[in-house]
Design brief:
heterodimer, A: mainly alpha, three-stranded mixed beta sheet, about 55% helix
Chain lengths: ~250, ~120
């Protein structure tokens, strides 16, 4: 069983399965992003959408609903932005590689808000250098902090200077991956996982909170267990020692 | 690996110029051409790999003033764009064809003793 939606693609109406719709939507978003800077943005994207609609019509014949294999097939025929590499859309503003000091690694240094202890500086550095666990970078910073406190200054400067990796494409640039359909969907899936985990954690916490309150109202004045207290309370009671800033 | 990339790059460069020539010749041949029909003819000649490549190219030729298009009603679905060469486009195509003739001669002359393994 599958949910369906009705869409208008290039002026043609289609009934499309939900999974097929999501795949198509992802693809069109990368197309729109790819041509976003072109002067003929409207023109190219409408033409591509119209052509895709024609291809769907040819594929469907008498079938009523567009399915995932149809979408995959049409995308294969149209090609992805990487395949368009031969056709340079940005001819007026081609990247100037004449700069003597320009080193392009394809990666950018960001603060990583997904795995942060303080501000995500260390985990951003870890992502930049491809270090699997940000713990090593953190340990290095802590070690340096004890040997003269220089690292504290460096950390604060980096915190101020580095941008936070806010969007999906920022996060891909942080790891040095290209922004194509597969990678962006990978990031989105990771984000969803992250959110689901957070939600279930909060759910658990609320449940235990609720239970303890019930016990209190029942007249059994039990002291609250330490783990059931909200995190902010624990932190405010026990300030962390200075060395643990990282 | 590096040689492979270089080869792909050179192939792309070669195709790129020729694709322009072919698209413009097809349009000139048809008088007024619908992009999907251009694609059909290009696929017959196995020149394009993915169809999406053609649309940015058409847009570029149009904004350079070599092509223009008119909207025409269609039997099924929304109106369609039909592309035609402008006067500048015809001149451009003549220039390309002239160069192409020279290139064919040059390549034939330079490679006449070359034995290809495939």
């Amino acid at each position: 069983m599958n949910k369906i939606s009705n869409i208008n693609l290039g002026g043609f109406p289609f009934t499309i399965d939900e999974d097929a719709f999501n795949h198509l939507d992802k693809y069109l978003k990368t197309i729109h992003k790819h041509f976003g800077k072109s002067d003929s943005y409207e023109e190219i994207t409408t033409d591509i959408e119209t052509r895709m609609a024609e291809l769907f019509q040819d594929k469907l014949e008498d079938r009523p609903i567009v399915t995932l294999p149809d979408v995959k097939n049409v995308i294969l025929t149209m090609g992805t932005p990487e395949d368009f590499g031969a056709e340079d859309v940005f001819m007026d503003e081609a990247p100037k590689s004449s700069g003597k000091w320009k080193i392009k690694t394809g990666k950018r240094l960001f603060r990583n808000p997904e795995h942060e202890a303080i501000a995500g500086v260390c985990s951003g550095i870890a992502a930049y250098f491809g270090i699997q666990d940000a713990l090593w970078v953190r340990l290095l910073f802590i070690l340096l902090a004890f040997t003269g406190g220089f690292a504290v200054v460096v950390y604060i400067i980096l915190w101020a200077v580095l941008p936070k990796a806010e969007s999906s494409s920022d996060r891909l640039a942080m790891r040095g991956e290209q922004a194509n359909v597969e990678n962006i969907s990978k990031i989105i899936e990771e984000e969803l996982d992250h959110v689901t985990k957070k939600v279930s954690e909060i759910g658990e916490e609320l449940k235990s909170e609720f239970h303890s309150k019930k016990k209190v109202s029942a007249g059994r004045m039990m002291p609250k267990a330490k783990a059931q207290r909200p995190l902010s309370e624990i932190i405010s009671v026990q300030p962390l020692p200075k060395g643990f800033m990282f | 690996m590096k040689v492979q990339n270089l080869l792909e790059n050179t192939k792309q460069q070669m195709r790129k110029g020729i694709l322009e020539l072919c698209i413009m010749s097809i349009i000139s041949d048809e008088g007024e051409a619908y992009p999907s029909d251009i694609i059909t003819r290009l696929q017959e000649s196995q020149l394009i790999v993915v169809q999406g490549t053609m649309y940015p190219l058409l847009a570029r030729l149009k904004s350079a003033g070599l092509l223009n298009y008119t909207w025409k009603e269609s039997d099924a679905g929304p109106p369609r764009k039909y592309y035609a060469l402008t006067d500048g486009g015809s001149e451009f195509l003549d220039g390309l064809m002239g160069t192409w003739g020279q290139l064919v001669k040059a390549v034939k002359h330079s490679t006449k003793n070359l034995k290809v393994n495939k």
